[in-house]
Write a structure and sequence with these properties.
By secondary structure, this protein is mostly helical. The protein has two domains: about 1-30 and about 205-290, Endonuclease Iii, domain 2 (Orthogonal Bundle); about 30-205. It has 14 helices and two strands. Strands 1-2 form a two-stranded antiparallel ribbon. Bound molecules: iron/sulfur cluster (SF4).
């Protein structure tokens, strides 16, 4: 079989999926719903955004529940949490907190790293722009954010803390889903994103590659790669940029929640796939008719 490519009508099909998508239904199940209440306070939104993106592993209900627990422990005052996190040692504030393999002490250390970064930068956007100004462009921005949150090598960070913030420029060439998602929330000016970072163009964003987005991107022929990596991020983003050069990542929410919601069963199911706007582009239906 040759490489799978989407049909010539793919842009129209993707647009139909985008326009017909029940955003409110899915927003209620998205970690972005935890961050939107802070849209009027950039510092609070950045801190809540980093915490929510860091929690964004696994089941969405569990993510929302964990964010609620974290928020309750911090009295919902994220800037105050960072303000008070002036030392790397745990103060026990989040001692009992757990989310899958993540532990409260890692979030306390994250608060400390944010405290240190805000001592030098008015906003995480400034740090991001500093990295983005180098030869690696957007990947350099993600790398600067990742390195800032990791902190200096050799500093006594909690176990597995630094694994939370991979960099696209390190040898693993990680897709860096968490920080790409955080950047999407901060940069895109269109609903449901927040548009708080005005100096990073939306055209520069890269797709936050979680397993739902990767599955559908592969099956729509946006990449032939079988492993999620930064190279796959660039390839899928380039394919989406051909559809919308100014805002390629606007399709991320829809592609992701098509998988999360069960709108896409990830196998051939005539009852569901028959009404899927991108079915003509789907690898599973190549050479097949829905009737
Ligand atoms: S045609 Fe079916 S399997 Fe393919 S993307 Fe659409 S819903 Fe998913």
């Amino acid at each position: 079989m040759g490489a799978h490519r989407p049909s010539a009508e793919f842009p129209a099909h993707l647009d139909a999926l985008y326009r017909g998508f029940p955003v409110e239904r899915s927003l209620a199940m998205d970690p972005l719903s935890c961050v939107r209440p802070f849209a009027d306070d950039r510092r609070a939104a950045e801190v809540a955004g980093i915490l929510a993106a860091t929690l964004a592993v696994g089941n969405t209900r569990a993510i929302l529940r964990s964010f609620g627990l974290l928020s309750a422990r911090l009295d919902g005052d994220f800037p105050a949490f960072v303000e008070g996190a002036g030392r790397p040692e745990s103060n026990g504030q989040l001692k009992e907190f757990r989310h899958r393999w993540l532990r409260g002490e890692q979030f306390e250390y994250l608060g400390y790293r944010l405290h240190e970064l805000y001592a030098s930068y008015g906003s995480l956007e400034e740090l991001f722009l500093e990295g983005m100004a180098g030869p690696d462009g957007f990947a350099g921005g993600i790398a600067a954010l990742a390195e800032g949150l990791r902190g200096p090598a050799g500093a006594p960070a909690p176990t597995r803390y630094r694994y939370l913030f991979p960099s696209p420029l390190r040898p693993s060439r990680s897709p860096c889903k968490r920080l790409a998602l955080f950047a999407r929330w901060m940069v895109r000016p269109e609903y449901p994103d927040l548009g708080l970072w005005k100096r990073v163009p939306a055209s520069e964003l890269r797709i936050p590659l979680d397993h739902h987005v990767f599955w559908i991107a592969y099956h729509l022929g946006l990449t032939a790669r079988r492993t999620p990596s930064w190279a796959a991020v660039e390839e899928i983003t380039a394919a989406l940029r051909a559809v919308d050069p100014n805002d390629p990542v606007k399709y991320d929410f829809v592609l992701c929640h098509t998988g999360i919601s069960g709108d896409c069963p990830k196998h051939r199911d005539l009852a569901i796939c028959g009404r899927c706007a991108v079915r003509p582009d789907c690898r599973l239906w190549r050479g097949r008719r829905a009737s």
